[in-house]
Specification:
This protein has 458 residues and is an alpha+beta fold. It has 16 helices and 17 strands. It binds (2R)-2-hydroxypentanedioic acid (2HG) and zinc ion (ZN).
Length: 458
């Protein structure tokens, strides 16, 4: 007998509603839906339901609701805060079969798709039409649009283009009572009442299940240049950021990493060190335009030349990918060493250097064996604090780091969401009135607490 009693009646009704082959009760079939890629979160689902249409999603929600069975909503399962991983007694509702992708509307510069379409497929479809979807991050091949919207994903281009929210022209969602809310007309100007689309973006599946979306696109900027720059400190790297903002309209990303991350990635991936010497701080910069932006990147670098210790620039696709790989390989390289505590946070940009110093010294003082890796998106003050060493369930390091974030007036979640990982710390950076408002909205839209309970709000 499994640890959690399977409600056979529910399984049978779901099988009738969406097809028996899409109701997974066998532990081997469920396994891929029950743990996340960080290795920190796992759980046992009652079963996994894989509907193929919005109507089927609605049926699953109604059947679960009838029996009071809570639902863990899951897209590509690339989240890092445990939001999509089942808690005891939950059904996993996977959206990956909602994967139809419409033609690009070149006049409106929009495309409509199901929640289960991957970020990469949307980017490819847009590019075939001379357009682009400008939210981007390393998990593009598996992360799905529904998940991007539910978490308001950020990524490397947020400094130029904003987060996912800015690119959602409309959506469809199944609500907790099984009704379907549809706003897919893609009207850019639409002030008739509350912004319900905006409310659902970033709600982490707690207010409704995003099943379709109409996405905005932007003209493709085909000419790209990527530079890797080395500095003696992160303060020094600000000189380049300033210069890029002042002199390079084509500037779109400045991600950073430190010495320990560079060593880790080179060892794990077998990459050569990019420069003869190891340096304290590295920044990967990307510029993109209609015309080759290399000169603009070079001019900005010249303005910051006193701070730059070494540099490499690539304009061809392979060279650009190789430079990005030093940054984008952090996550997998860390996972190869253990289960990291991941804290995706923001602090005001000017505070990043002192924030990083405090994190390093306080974590090592509290946990002498811990290894601290800091990297992130420089333009946004978004630091990915990763700590190896403490056991996955130990909360000491999370508590310590998130309190430092609050001290600097930052946010406990920059771009990954709150999930279950940070729910207990929400009040560190959101005040009582805000949390009361969040609870009231949750109660109004999901009175039975069926959808992703325990995520965001405990
Ligand atoms: C990134 O920017 C992702 O690489 C993952 O947001 C961050 O590994 C992390 O903590
Ligand atoms: Zn990131």
């Amino acid at each position: 007998m499994s640890q959690i009693e399977l409600d056979q009646g529910l399984a049978d009704e779901l099988a009738e509603a969406i097809g028996a082959e899409h109701v997974l009760v066998d532990p081997d079939l469920r396994a891929g839906f029950e743990h996340d890629l960080t290795g920190r979160f796992d759980g046992q689902a009652l079963l996994v339901a894989r509907p193929a249409t919005s109507d089927e999603v609605s049926r699953v929600v109604r059947l679960c609701g009838k029996r009071g069975v809570p639902i863990a909503v899951q897209g590509g399962n690339t989240g890092m805060v445990g939001g999509a991983i089942p808690r005891p007694g939950e059904v996993v509702l996977s959206l990956v079969r909602l994967d139809d992708l419409g033609p690009v509307d070149t006049l409106a510069q929009q495309v409509e798709c199901g929640a289960g379409v991957t970020l990469e497929r949307v980017q490819e479809r847009a590019r075939e039409a001379g357009l682009d979807f400008p939210v981007d991050f390393a998990a593009r091949g598996s992360a799905t649009i529904g998940g991007l919207i539910a978490t308001n994903a950020g990524g490397s281009l947020a400094a130029r283009y904003g987060m996912t929210r800015a690119w959602v022209a409309g959506l469809e969602a199944v609500l907790a009572d099984g009704s379907i809310m549809r706003r897919l007309r893609g009207l850019l100007k639409d002030n008739a009442g509350y912004d319900l689309t905006g409310l659902l973006v970033g709600s982490e599946g707690t207010l409704g299940i995003v099943t379709r979306a109409r996405l905005r696109l932007t003209p493709l900027l085909p000419a790209r240049a990527v530079g890797l720059f080395a500095f003696a400190s992160i303060e020094d790297a600000f000189a380049l950021l300033d210069a890029l903002r002042a002199r390079a309209p084509s500037f779109q990303a400045a991600d950073y990493l430190h010495r320990e991350g560079m060593e880790l990635v080179c060892t794990h991936r077998g990459f050569p060190q990019p420069f003869r010497e190891l340096h304290d701080t590295y920044v990967v910069v990307e510029c993109a335009g209609q015309d080759d932006p290399t000169d603009e990147l070079g001019e900005a670098a010249a303005l910051a030349e006193d701070a730059i210790l070494d540099s490499a620039i690539a304009t061809d696709a392979d060279g650009r990918r190789a430079l990005w790989a030093y940054r984008e390989s952090h996550n997998e390289s860390l996972s190869s060493r253990g289960v990291p505590h991941k804290m995706d946070v923001t602090v005001p940009l000017a505070s990043v250097p002192s924030f990083e110093r405090d994190v390093r010294s306080e974590v090592v003082a509290a946990l002498p064996d811990a290894e601290v890796f800091l990297y992130g998106h420089l333009g946004d003050g978004n630091v990915h604090v990763n700590v190896l060493g403490p056991p996955p369930d130990d909360r000491t390091v999370d508590d310590l780091v998130l309190r430092i974030v609050a001290h600097y007036g930052g946010s406990i979640s920059a771009e990954h969401g709150v999930g279950v990982a940070k729910a207990r710390w929400l009040s560190l950076t959101r005040d009582d009135a805000e949390i009361a408002m969040m609870r009231a909205i949750k109660r109004a839209l999901d009175p039975q607490s069926l959808l992703n309970p325990g995520r965001i709000l405990v």
